[in-house]
Fold these 4 entries.
Entry 1:
Amino acid sequence: MRASQFSMVLVLMAASPALAQQSQADKLFEEGAALMKQNKYAEACPKFEQSNKIDPEIGGMLWLADCYERNNQTASAYATYKDAEKMSLDKKDKQQRDKVAQKHMAALEPHLAKLTVLPPQDGRPTGLAVMRDGEVLASDALGLAVPVDPGQHVVTAIAPHYKKWTQNVDVTGEGATVTLTIGPLEKDATAAPPVVVVDNGDPGFAYHVSGIALGVAGLVSLGVGSVFGLVAASKLSASNANGHCDAADTCDSVGLGLRSDAEGAALASTILFIAGGVVLAAGITAFVLAPKKKHTEPTFAAITPAVGNGFYGLAATGRF
């Protein structure tokens, strides 16, 4: 095969996945538009969501925002119009569709329902993580009136040495602002206390403790990764059941949601397996390479639970 022919084959091979993705995005968009014409907004919006994930475009975002608006998902509509506005300005859109987005945002703003989540009145525990509908809130978002779609929402708070706190809140009414205060949080008497060990002679002692702590954390990460792997497989299987997705991977709104959940769980599983392997290897290395020479400076190590925005695990501290 001549060099020019070989180059052409490589170009075609590289372009094929992109063309397939574009075709899938177009197909989902057309399905969403057809559902919109039938006023089936709850079914149309997931089609536009998936289309925009594959191939985000200004026009597609405006269609999605309009679908959200018609489906009374006002906060989602407002945020999507804002994304369309930014994309239009970034791309210097000649059609000036940022003006269209701005017009809709101005009309929506007085009607947005908002939820204010306040920290516990008796003080914010160290490591407090707050989630709304499973999404972790930034710490600086506490106390702010944040637009949410009208309806039921679930607020959850977790912190080391405290029991999980969960509250359902109904946010309804145009322009309404609902305030929810977290707590009171209940102490968890069953929580494992910090493990503190002191040694005054062996400099390798702290390395051994740290190695064990890292090894345990690595094994926990691998175990959680396995759970996410099972969740991904379960979601994928569910998407194929009851005709939600066919052999050509064409899915209805339920199937698309399950496929999206499966992809997220699979990604989390992969990340946790990689991180767990790295941490486990680090623990083994620390344990094996611990120094043998004695010295007089005391060494100590402490292992404590660690909880933060989007992570859970163990923290090892000490003087080596």
Entry 2:
Amino acid sequence: MKKPDCSKVLLAVLVVFLMAISAFAQSNTNTQAPGPIVRKPEQKDPEQIIKQAIEAYGGAAYLNVHTVLGRGLYTTYRDGVSQLPATFVDYIVYPDKERTEFTGGGTHVIQANVGDTGWNFDGAVKTIKDQKPEQIEDFKFGVKTGIDYLLRGAWRKQGAKLSYVGRREAGLAKRNEAIRLEFADGFWIEYEFGAKDFLPAKIIYVRKRKNPDTGVVEEFNEEDRLAKPIAVQGVTSAWVIDHFINSKQFSRVAYDSVEYNKPVADSLFTKPATIKGLK
């Protein structure tokens, strides 16, 4: 769940996400490129677009957020049909702590990450386990593709190159300004912002995954659509995030409430020795 754009309630890192993605990948193998550029009148400064987006999100109030507590519903989709939602509580402590709890259908799942470490609790089988390396990498990938990664400048330490892409259609009489981050290994992320309100609207990237059946590495076009901007404590963020894979909706994160800079206990991120010690 990544935020204060509440950016991706772990959209690429949730345990539920990880359980479902392999099945989705087996039946969806065609990728699509981002939408066409409709107008590129001049070479705009992408740094200025970032500054405008930060101001749209609250300026100093946004940048001074240290913790986020979000609650809402997480829903997966199958063949375009929404499945039963799970309620979630998401705790974030910048720069590198996050814990998300899911309940629904008689289950209780917790995923907690701190930097390069993480653990999971599965209430169905009453187990607490360290995350596997690929799960930790998924968490870090979710952070990397979130809007905070761009606006808070973490990409600058990774040597990524920022460029202006152009202007894209975004609905009736609406346009988005698109910018791109590109990394040394060729991986790129494109971000779209409203040309008038400067609010983040889309995040687009192509992710490579290994097919669990064939072992072949396949590419998947993934997109986050950010909607329902709401201001709380002077900070504006998207309260609905829809995730698409190859143009098909995969999930929705819908927030019911978001609180900023509320104290969050360190013990929430510490792996308990036993289930009885679970906070």
Entry 3:
Amino acid sequence: MRPVSELTPEERAALRYYEEYEPPEPVRHEPRFPLLRKLLGPLIAVGALLVKFGGVLLKGKFFFSIFISAAFYVWYGGWWFGIGLIVLLFVHEMGHVLEAKRQGLPVTAPLFIPFFGAFITMKQMPHDAWNEAKVGIAGPLVGSAGALALWIAGEAADSNSLKAIAFLGFLINLFNLLPVVPLDGGRIVGALHPALWFVGFLALLGLVVVRPNPLLILILIFSGMELWNRWQTRNHPERQSYYRVRPSQRVTMGVLYFGLAILLVVGMHATHVPRDLFK
């Protein structure tokens, strides 16, 4: 590069021009409808995530259903009620899952439905009524143990909120012992005597008449359909073979079933909290 002293006057003037020249700032155009763009921005981002990860979300039906149910229960009865109920339902259903897994039966994760509880689906039925009864009673047994733990915690902390949740847990598990299909009790009493299905159906019918609500009516309808189906196939050889249970097994399941029902009533009585004492 030539030194400045050797430049001609024209070249020196051109050099000073380029040194002092500042390019103009680019013109910035304000976007149209700025407020609308700010409002739609988060929605567009969420939509992009759903498109990208929608397949993964659909595979997580368990997490989605438990989140939606928890939101409904919290909205309906507050945080104590909502979270406590979800925990109780989860513990109950995991009892079924653990026993089904122990028997080598393929089973789905619990699926939660707001105000209808939760359920699992077995892709293969147990080998006989005895094994079905064990899967059926595992839920109330484990669920009752969970409610008992809340009761103990409530007594230790002198918390009426925990005692009330324990009461709800005892009530849920006792209701599930009603001897009608699709409730757990219907699967349990199949190992005792099929006549108990008729007793359970009549008891449920009386409950619907005294305290009608959509959930009881729906269970009554499903119970009636299942009872009619089993009555029609009662003489089928496979059906008769399925319900052959040894006397010792009947006694064992009978003790577990009726004994648990009595203990749940005792637990409900001990954990009942009057409204004026609830805190």
Entry 4:
Amino acid sequence: MKMSQEGLDKLTKPWEELILWPYDDKVAKRRNSETGRFEQPEYKGGPLRGTLTQGYGHTNSDDPKIVLGSRWTVAEANEILLKDMGRYEAIVNRYLKVKVSQHVYDGLVDLCFNCPSAIPHVVGLINAGNKAAAERAMMQYIYSKGERMEGLVHRRTAEIAFMNTPDDPEEAASTIISPKAEREPAPKTMAQSKTGSAAIATASAGAGSVIAGIQAANDAAAPIKEARDNINDLGLMEHLIRFAHSPKALIIVGCFVLALAVFVFLDRKYKLTEFHV
């Protein structure tokens, strides 16, 4: 495997920072009296507090050797970085025995670039399938010449976060954060749901009953009128019978059935969308 451009752009380059002249990496930045900006002071000789560095974290452990007073161009710094990364990719590839995601691999190469001594320990845990232990082990490598460095604490934290980023952006959106870490199943369509199908069928039947009821009412109107003419003084019963056989009653029943079907349909659709059940 090789480190991705995303890994270079989001991990190594931002954390190393591009400095085109030689500097001591344990000397704090100072304000430039001319520009007013904080800059890494150029190392011009004398005892080193940390490691002599230039470009994107390049040190004398790799070629080319740093020459005091030199200035690199941005293109030269990028070329040297890619050459350096090839060495650390080879180290990670030599130790890594299992398949990992690109983000995990990039995080390991960045760790190797910054602290090669961490790789046998951390990658050994990755090979054993214990990624959580590997992440805890990474947080042990936060010292420079025996001194705890807050910058290294933040860098290890950033590497771990990057390693836990899915390679596929859609994978992150479709994954629920739950104790079981289960992936959300794709929601069923209303046609696939038994309840949804029943609701659709009921709605169709309800709509059909309204139409059929109106037609039936027209057919029944003549005999009802004839029966009414033959029966006298039936009072309330006459009104009930008349209403029960009227077009209004059939329409009301049909509308009730249709409303019930719509309610069942919407309720089922909500449960499928929100709860996938």
